Amino acid sequence: MESSSEVDLISEDERQFGQWPRRLLYVDDENMISHEWQPGNTYGGYKEPKYNIVSYTWGRFALKQGEKPHVQGIKVGNISWDVPRIDPNRHFSVAEFDCMIRSTLTVREKTGDHGEPIRFLWLDIACIDQEVDVVKMSEIGRQAVIFQNASSACIWLNRCEEEELRTIVAEFKAADCMRPDMERSPKHYEKMITWTKSLLPPALGQLQRLRDEPWFNSLWTLQEAYLRQHAVILCRSGLPVSKGFPYSSSFENLRSITFNVSNIANTCSRAIALGCNDTSLLTTLDLINELGIVPIERHNPFTLLNSASHRKAFDNVDRVYGIMQVFGYRLGATRPEMTKLEAPPKFTLQDLQSELSEKLLNDFPVQSQLKIFTSPPPKGEAWKLNPYSEIPQFARIPSIYTFVNRGPGSSGMHGRNSPKSLSKWEVIPVAGTSEKSVKCTGKVCSFRMLQMTWARLNDERTKADPESHPIQEIALDLNRVSGPSSPLVIPLLPDFPIVGREVEVSRQNNLALLLAEHALWVLLLGTQKSPTRTFGRTQYGLIIMRAKRADTDYWKRIGVLRWELWDLPENTNEADKKLLKGDSEAWEGRSGVLA
């Protein structure tokens, strides 16, 4: 147990550190010395030194006390803890680790950045006390600011040889050659069939290769990748890999992979929509989802909890601790007030998921609810994120998530065009339990009323432009009807066709018509002024079923939707405009508990 003096020191230090790490590792030709922060942001006599950072994984491969005693850890001076020893037969040797560390100091993310030499590195095993838990959790709670303010970042793929990495990048680039918005036609169908049989298989093989790379299945690296997606990739030797362009000094970085793979995912989705039924398409999409590549590329933090469920974790609670910093949160044992306690309480994964969801609901009431479930959430927990919550296609617009941490520097929590909430959410305790539920107050309207309005306006749009898309877009919660390997279906409409987890745009009007046959309502979640440069005002809603028990209204969520207020037909009447804005009498003020 830590002494009260240690706890007081941590609390005092955190107020002084600001954006600076508690320690930095100084590396020269002969030694590695871990220097503590000193007033004036000084480390070993160097004031506010530039430092690099490296993302790698080691926890699963650390040797236990007494195991292979001949294996040593790297030599680091000026620390009180034992540096973890890594099994060289399963992961990397001391010599390989040493080479990688020294290589990181020569790396620059930006081409042409040849400023002063960098001698400092933030390396977790040398800069985080591995034995004093309260210090360890305190520094874990500051990971985002430490990563953001590093000069350059590196990623060590320690099982990937240089030529392997070149092949991986090349085959992803080769497969990223199709327009994901191809119109439906026999010609485009044939092109997609050819792509699926010729260029997709090599790319799928490389995705399977990445899945076996420890860095791509480690939990903590998911957050680190999100924070620094231009991090330079180091191969097994610890050296960066040149992009191979003549007269260029740039290196392959994480985006060399994520950009092309995200486009491959888009192409797979479009191929399925065009009628291609090759099983490798869904296999590829599932694998890309498992690797968590698309959320990294698209800056979408709300899918990270889902991605974290596929990663390997030493402790289950790390599935929240390992991603919370992208939201700027310090949860559970990493909260500043916890560092003042001699014996902080233990938190479960459920505790942390609830705390994360509650903070997100408070800070981002629209974004946190723009999700679908691929498995029914526990009763009363539909307001929370969980490993089965995903973001529908229409809610993946980057402007919705402008608050996220995007690399060096800081970004505000809300951008000018972020969604504005039009409902009020209140977290309430569930009587007789430690659980919490959510009460929502806002405007609700009959789904049938909205559907009839959309249908009229969509007819007018189609007359003017047969290729126009519907005003509305709907995404519904899904379920598997007969076990984990069975197809996903819409519970209300089990025979309605879906592509992966989405309903095709061309089927949106038919979907709305079928849903209108049920007693459904829409809660007006929020509005967004300009989601993209080409999109105008957009409304967001939650589709619900209403039920009354005793004196309480309960709302069961069915899905989410958006509809447009811009580019309406010229002859749209004022009554329809008011309805779509949420201003007509058809919208009633109601309150309900989310079931």
From TrEMBL:
<protein>
    <recommendedName>
        <fullName>Heterokaryon incompatibility domain-containing protein</fullName>
    </recommendedName>
</protein>
<dbReference type="InterPro" id="IPR010730">
    <property type="entry name" value="HET"/>
</dbReference>
<dbReference type="Pfam" id="PF06985">
    <property type="entry name" value="HET"/>
</dbReference>
<feature type="domain" description="Heterokaryon incompatibility">
    <location>
        <begin position="51"/>
        <end position="224"/>
    </location>
</feature>
<dbReference type="InterPro" id="IPR052895">
    <property type="entry name" value="HetReg/Transcr_Mod"/>
</dbReference>
